[in-house]
Amino acid sequence: MNKNRSWANAVAVKDGKIVYVGNNKGVASFKGTRTRVIDLKGKMLMPGFIDSHNHAYLMAESLFWLSLNPYSTVEKRQQAIKDYVKKHPNMKQLRGVGWDEINRDSKSRGLAPKELLDQVVPDIPAVFIANSHHSILVNSKALEMAGIDKNTPDPQGGTIERDPKTGEPTGILHEFSAENLVIKALPQPDFTVEQFKKTLLSWQKTAAEDGITSVFVPVHYPTENLLKAFKELDHSGKLTVRYDLGLWADENKGTEQIDQLKKLRDQYQGKLYKIDSIKIFADGVGENKLVWNQNVLEKTVAALDKEGFRIYVHAIGNQGFYPSHNVLNAFEYAAKVNGERDSRHVITHLDWVKEEDVPRFKDLGVIPAPQPAWFGKDWYDHIKGEKLKEVNHMNSYFKAEIPVVSSSDFPSTNTFKRDMYPLTGLEVGITRLDPDHTTEADLNKVEWPKEKASLQDMIASYTINGAHLIFQENERGSIEVGKKADLVVLDKNLFKIPVTTIGEVKVLLTMFEGKEVFQHPAFTGMPN
Predict the structure, then answer these.
(1) CB neighbours of 152 closer than 8 A, spacing ≥ 6?
(2) For residue 7, pLDDT beyond 60
(3) Is the peptide bond before 498 cis (omega within 30 degrees of 0)?
(4) Are the beta carbons of 470 and 462 closer than 8 angstroms?
(5) Whole-angstrom Cα distance, residue 317 to residue 189?
(6) Residue 399 and which of 82, 144, 150, 310 are 20 to 30 A apart at CA?
(7) Of 490, 413, 417, 416, which is closest to residue 459 (Cα–Cα)?
(8) Could you read off the pLDDT of 54-104 as tens digits, one per residue?
(9) Do residues 12 and 477 make contact, with C-beta atoms less than 8 angstroms apart?
């Protein structure tokens, strides 16, 4: 993945860095008496994958909370909750993930969503977050502890669902400003430092199996326990992924929070993790509703930009609703106020973008960070014809020479394991079809083929472009002399197989800075 996209036959690594790239004859002089030689026997070596939007710390939910994803009925979900509460009799709160079908279930039972929880958890606060993480289901006890009733106003950017007749909260709250009204009132609002440490170590194991060696991690909540966990793991030499962190900016605090964000940035900088970014939500999920007042957004973005922060913005949109346009306006305002700089601001998700806004990304130096694995889902199957030109751009960014990056947004869907695997994103970025059911005969069924990207471009989005996003393009992202030896071995050459099988290719070996962090049992090329 160098500028010429060239191929090589041999690589030499010393002290965690690449010292030679070339042919078998040229590499021979680097072999010493203690050199380990790995014959890949024709298998494909490539740079380590970079996931440019991954909530690694949220693996804590599957480790320490109750997941309702395995259960398909109200009865099974309620029984799972009963069983969990019985096994943990001294709990002061119940946290969980799932029950995305709560509105359907509540309607079928003729009960408010909170009442379905009250039936099984009446005495302690119970909070279940949706897989999207943009909504929570809570019981009456949680609403009571948070002081939320029919007179509580919706916070900026958030929504408290209410009964249309009585005005009473139903138990569902949308978006983070509303969610945090409940979460901050809980006995334990956050995971502990030790829980986060265990989480990151577990997530790193999965990342290594997936060939991921660097990651951008946007933080949803104002949590310092996570930052303490990173600091301790980095200090003890236990980080095996390069982390770039983005702190969450509260839409209710505008510029007044910047001093605190600067303080955290100064306090938490390590060898293998750093804070240089701020995460902002332009919209949420489902509602055509802007989270920020545009004037406050522009002034806050400009103030953060002036302090040297990179701003990383969530903007999904919908047909006729384009929050990315508002965000680009905010970046343009910041450039006018502060002058242009190498800011590398980012907009992520980008399901809906005006066609005429695509060139603005390049003009403003803004990086798009979509999730290619999502292109094959059925979310927009109802969109037809010319309207598809605004949905899930990918090839348009490459054609405009914009350094688009790829990401997973782990774990924001119930298929998060499949979505996080970079080979899934590589395949779907090319086919724009469901990776689990698509064959070569289906490739001509894509209704808007103009956005199908090439394999070479998709690899760039997961490697050298990702390195550019985290300001590491001189250190990582390609196999070149002087760079860190972040390397991945695949069991097949991606350029010699049907594109519909790319998602099934296996990672055999992952190296982070020259150290093996994963070896597949099927890989026999590594000497003991």
Answers:
(1) 160, 169, 181
(2) yes
(3) no
(4) no
(5) 30
(6) 310
(7) 490
(8) 999 999 999 999 999 999 999 999 999 999 999 999 999 999 999 999 999
(9) no
